[in-house]
Amino acid sequence: MKNSKVTKTKKEHINTGNAKITTDIVIFTIEDGELKILLVKRKYEPFKGRWALPGGFIKEVETLEETARRELSEETGVSGVYLEQLYTFGEPKRDPRGRVVTAAYFALAPKHLMSLSASSGAEDAKLFSVKKHPELAFDHEKIMQKALHRLQNKIQYTNLSWSLLPNAFTLSEIQAVYELIWDKKVDKRNFRKKMLTLGLLKPLSKERTGLRQRPAKLYAFKTKTYVELRRFF
Amino acid sequence: MKNSKVTKTKKEHINTGNAKITTDIVIFTIEDGELKILLVKRKYEPFKGRWALPGGFIKEVETLEETARRELSEETGVSGVYLEQLYTFGEPKRDPRGRVVTAAYFALAPKHLMSLSASSGAEDAKLFSVKKHPELAFDHEKIMQKALHRLQNKIQYTNLSWSLLPNAFTLSEIQAVYELIWDKKVDKRNFRKKMLTLGLLKPLSKERTGLRQRPAKLYAFKTKTYVELRRFF
DNA sequence: GAAATATAGTGTAAAAAATACACTAAATAC
DNA sequence: GTATTTAGTGTATTTTTTACACTATATTTC
Fold it and tell me: What CATH homologous superfamily does A20-156 map to?
């Protein structure tokens, strides 16, 4: 793409708006009773060898969301997940290479969609606990924290937890999702009452068996698409 | 800025991420009992002569928010208002000049900060009713609708209405702000009860007089900075 | 196979918040 | 001084939130 509209004379090319655009993806999942985030090890400078959010430069004909999905897939092998735009970071010095503006995306996936290592670029993609992770490249820590707050807020008034769970799950399992995200315990009876009266779930006629305790009823989400509620918790 | 990381061979420069960045600002105010939006008439192609959101290209060393404030000031003479990032629009064909990604901003101002025509670039800046406005350039209608939803949601759980009101106002006046934004009436007694128990307001020892009715007590916001509430309406 | 252990599952009372609803008060206009 | 306009106020009902403890049913252990 050429400089299509330079506003002033040739020397004073200050307002041309030129920049490079990337997307970076903060993708959360739950594994081993922890809220985790997917990071990739950088192969090139700057920040070579450091862990960073998956992401990369837009192509000429892609939407921003398409870039995010493509980069996520190329770098980590993950696809078909819930994805929404988070925030755009454009501080002039955020990338040592020059003016790089990043449209950050927020993503959620159940653990079974996070089968890494299956894919090409996935050798250096790994899940890390949100509470304990390596130092990140660029301003990715700031982006991650913003994504975490988005998650903590949004599960209050949406049905987004479907995107972190398998098709069938017990009430204790969905409660654990909320507790991990909020990093606090909630009351079991009140949680169940609320969750069931919201009407988002349908009971299945199966149970989670084989564990060393009373079998738990399984439930599924009625709809696995984004639903916003008037109020939630 | 050079092409610092070209992923493939030289001919196939597809992933370079090059684009131009703009910010566009959706700024709301209340005038004559209507929720209004500030638009500027375009002086150049494309969409020459059409009304559009104020905005423009980033400078090399500006943050995105600085660009938004500068463009708003240059094009409309408005400054010192509440401003937050809204969403970033990057569809490849949204601008006929080429790849232009816009970081849209959301702004609110009390009417007295909207004294247009005082400024240089303000000849072609005008307020229009949100419910009835001219056809907009680019994808600005979509951006405006997104901003309106943000506003409708955010006044539920923040103290943002301070940024649409003068320093002193009556309870009827702040109620009118909510009614205009939500485009529906609310119950007067319940509204006052809620608003006062929230503790955001302090009563002033003055009244709104000179009108042909009983004088109304004046109130002010305790803090005129962004406060998020657990719940609101 | 009895006991220990682990998690599933359930109800109620109290407090807080939301909702529905109608009349009196105090100024100006005529 | 009568009409008009908006300010200002309280209560009863319903809904939602919160706090709180025991029994049920499976597996594991001895």
Answer: Nucleoside Triphosphate Pyrophosphohydrolase (3.90.79.10)
